[in-house]
Design goal:
about 475 residues; five-stranded parallel β-sheet
Length: about 475
């Protein structure tokens, strides 16, 4: 949870920060908290989307807390605001800016903690049913239930919300299709449109009319599919979804205990963006903005993985990595905008197990993080995995087919290891290369195809009855277990 505290009384500001720290410790949640004793400084730094909750003194100078809250609302319609004041005279005015609550000073844990629990619960639900965008106006959270339709024109994807707000991002519609079409309420009506069926008023021959008065085109090829999907959606809404209050399922939800990940980056937008992706996959994320905070958090408690930016203020990520290596044996993955091969090699030399560039798509980012954590945990517990006649021994880094050892290079073993961890999932040659070697200049596709061709020949020669790695033409490769 991202919290900002604004109070001109420095003692009160320190006390509130202390209460937040106590809450974080008692609940075991991740909180990124920032304090401001000047409302002007706070608003000047704000772009919208940085915070989930703002604790705001109602009696601040420069127009007062209520005026500041109105300006905050113009920048961020989703942020929760809790007014804190020594007087109740502004309580009524707080409703005009849709304040979450109004607390009277002195604030203690008995009054504050239940509110923080409530906000945390609400954010969790929103996070499960939404996604984060790095839009042209900053980082914003988009909730599926408030999204009316998605439109692409040229290379701009526009997300139209029910209240008329539009978030734009330079991308392709294909980048967002899967996460939307995996949900029952979304349908693709045209090559340039995704529509939330919850907002459909009527379906005509060539278009959909939404409840908010928008006409969305329907292509001839998709006409019958859209009509059938809408009828099915109405039936589902009347039965399952009404009983459950909505479908809480999230693609990729983890069924085992939550992994704790330490994310170290001095850029607030970047921390927010990557943390939301990790939380959407069920992870607990602790965040640090510099090496000192990272070392302290690593000393205070264990984690399953560390994501470390290279260009940190003060001591750089490579140096911090070496020090973290002395504290714990967990995967350390560099997450950086630097793509040069020599910097990546420096990262591996410092003790990093992988190097992910910040232009990596979210699903590939998650696949790499998940793979590294699972492989690390496998080393600590189970070191052998069997897929029919194929046995992978992680401790010895060798593969055996029907008891006979396969002559695998280190790269071939890593490819087989990574693909088998995601059996059935298709990876392009570039994704295979990046999962194993990280982003490096050169022809990634050709290099991956060479390694894959050699690996497949060895597997097929050792066991002709089954093809462990299949080629999906035009897409890539997948591991197929005979079990």
């Amino acid at each position: 949870m991202r919290i900002a505290i604004c109070d001109e009384d420095e003692q009160e500001l320190a006390r509130l920060s202390g209460e937040i720290a106590k809450y974080q410790s008692s609940r075991g949640v991740s909180i990124d908290c920032h304090s401001y004793c000047n409302i002007t400084d706070f608003l000047c730094e704000l772009e919208g989307g940085e915070y989930d909750l703002v604790l705001l003194d109602a009696l601040m100078s420069g127009g007062g807390g209520a005026q500041a809250a109105r300006e905050l609302r113009e920048l961020d319609k989703n942020v929760e605001i809790i007014f804190i004041s020594a007087s109740s005279e502004f309580a009524v005015e707080s409703y005009s800016v849709r304040a979450y609550y109004y607390l009277l000073k002195p604030v203690d844990e008995n009054s504050l903690f239940p509110l923080l629990d409530s906000v945390e619960s609400k954010l969790f639900v929103q996070g499960e049913q939404g996604f984060v965008l790095k839009s042209r106006k900053g980082v914003v959270r988009v909730v599926f239930s408030r999204l009316e339709y998605v439109e692409v024109i040229d290379k701009t994807v526009s997300f139209h919300l029910e209240d008329g707000v539009i978030h734009e991002i330079t991308a392709a519609l294909a980048d967002f299709e899967k996460k939307h079409l995996d949900r029952p309420e979304f349908i693709k009506t045209h090559r340039a449109y995704l529509v939330n069926l919850s907002y459909v008023q009527a379906i005509d021959v060539n278009c959909i009319a939404t409840k908010n008065g928008h006409n969305i085109p329907v292509s001839r090829q998709r006409r019958s599919q859209v009509q059938e999907a809408y009828m099915h959606f109405l039936h589902q809404t009347g039965t399952k979804m009404l009983r459950s209050g909505g479908d809480p399922a999230v693609s990729g939800e983890r069924l085992d205990s939550a992994w704790r990940i330490l994310l170290v980056d001095d850029d607030l937008d970047e921390r927010t963006y990557w943390a939301e992706i990790l939380r959407a996959h069920g992870c607990i994320v602790d965040m640090a903005q510099n090496g000192g905070e990272a070392l302290k958090m690593a000393s205070d408690g264990p984690c399953d993985c560390i994501l470390l930016d290279v260009m940190l203020s003060g001591e750089d990520g490579f140096s911090i990595c070496k020090r973290l290596r002395g504290l714990m044996d967990v995967p350390i993955i560099f997450l950086s905008c630097l793509t040069e091969s020599d910097r990546q090699l420096e990262g591996f030399a410092a003790g990093g197990i992988d190097y992910i560039t910040k232009d990596t798509p979210p699903e590939l980012f998650w696949a790499k993080v998940e793979t590294r954590i699972r492989l690390s945990r496998a080393r600590q517990s189970r070191t052998q995995f069997r897929y029919g006649p194929l046995l992978l021994d992680l401790a010895e880094r060798r593969g055996l087919m029907d008891g006979k050892e396969l002559s695998l290079t280190s790269a071939e073993f890593d490819i087989l290891w990574c693909l088998s961890e995601h059996a059935g999932q298709i990876f392009s040659p570039e994704e295979v290369f990046e999962m194993v070697f990280g982003s490096q200049p050169g022809d990634d596709r050709q290099m991956a195809q060479i390694h894959m061709s050699r690996l497949r020949r060895k597997l097929d020669k050792a066991w002709e009855a089954h093809h462990f790695i299949e080629t999906v033409w035009g897409q890539g490769y997948r591991f197929v277990s005979p079990d």
